[in-house]
Amino acid sequence: MKSYIIEGGKRLEGTVKVSGSKNASLPILAATILNGNSNRLYNVPDIRDTKITLEILKLLGCKIKRNSGKIEINSKNITKTEIVDHLMRKMRSTVILAGALLGRFKEVTFSYPGGCDIGSRPIDLHLNAFKKLGVEITEEAGFIKCKANKIIGTNIDLDFPSVGATENIILATVLSEGTTVINNAAMEPEIVDLANYLKKMGAKIEGAGTISITIKGVKKLSGASYNIMPDRIEAGTLLCAVAGSGGSVTLNDVNPNHLSAVINKLEECGCEIEITNKTIFLKAPKRLKPLEIKTMPYPGFPTDLQQIFSAMLTKANGTSIIIENIFENRYKHLAELRKMGAKITTEGKTAIISGVRKLNSATTVCTDLRGGAALVIAGIMAKGKTKIEDIDYILRGYENIDAKLNSLGAKVKIIEEK
Ligand code: EPZ
Fold first, then answer.
1. Are 9 and 51 in contact (CB under 8 A)?
2. Fewer CB within 10 Å of terminal CB in the chain, N or C?
3. CA 262–ligand 1 middle distance (angstroms)
4. Given this model, what pLDDT does residue 31 score?
5. Are 245 and 376 in contact (CB under 8 A)?
6. Per residue in 26-58, pLDDT tens?
7. Cβ of 162 less than 6 Å from ligand 1
């Protein structure tokens, strides 16, 4: 098992480059299935989630060449439409491959996806949308079989602006007959990135990034190359690590427009922020002010940064309130923060964080991807050596996060234990 040993108490300062977006890369990797041609993707983060997705594409029959962030994928010889179970279960976003395989082959077999335990994470919105598009769905022995003679465009009203369901509907309909309109669509920047890549292939998509997206099916898509957008959640994580340490940082290769709700909250808790079109500069105060945060679909405050903010606010000068509105079980990391002396209580979907003067180093355990990142931030803020066990959760979603933090003056070491 891999663990971090973090020697805390250091103010972080310096400059760091943000990697490509995990949550944009995953649907874009799936989209390469659609054109049966060669594709070149740049700025793809080298993390476990992209590695698993590439492994599944290879097993389906794709030819893949990877050279760090540059990936060549030729999907001409895909011979299978079944996603292997043991890889399907390793993460949530494998379900996105279903939409792409349906879009091209009009059939797919897969099992329920895995992913961080931050809630039940059903896929009912995905499956209901497929049914509305004319897909026949049967379930047997834990496998979901989808088949359609034709995918026929239609109007789909999402009960919730689900990111994955929006992505899956787009992937399933770019090669369909007719036109699909998604109402109450997710507006996350990752949806816009996916649509931009598909439009480079020749797809006809209007309205990505708004509440209503129109997809006009086309007969064929060509190969295309694409540069993945920066990871806005990694950017927010780095900003919070520096703010929690009372330091200063310049982030390069970031899109500040993707982080306006987050930047607004960082300014509200006393940070000085300056932005250009590709950089964010942050200078933290000696002690942060408390905040009230409610997670919402984009462009509201992102649920993926709620846990990270909860760690940063453990030493704020007052009581902070966090309300998690997206997932029903995204507070498991709080018990680990309490081990370090944080004063946090929860009441349903509300977390109440009373700021303390100091955090104590402790041995903690990762509960999920972003909860693990929260523990790293707490370790940097605590005096002494903190151990964080089971960091595979963190390695699946952040590219070289320890090296990035160490380049800012943190002391994060990886150890391997039997
Ligand atoms: C994506 O997950 C992201 N993952 C998540 O990031 C992110 O937290 C989430 O969007 C919300 O922004 C990837 O892009 C790979 P949803 P997704 O469908 O698509 C419920 C991270 O840390 N729901 O928008 O799974 C669901 O249970 C990860 O990088 C249904 O009820 O999120 C949740 O409560 C964590 N039925 C809410 O909607 C469905 O069919 C939002 O889920 C689908 C979703």
1. no
2. C
3. 19
4. 98
5. no
6. 999 999 999 999 999 999 999 999 999 999 999
7. yes
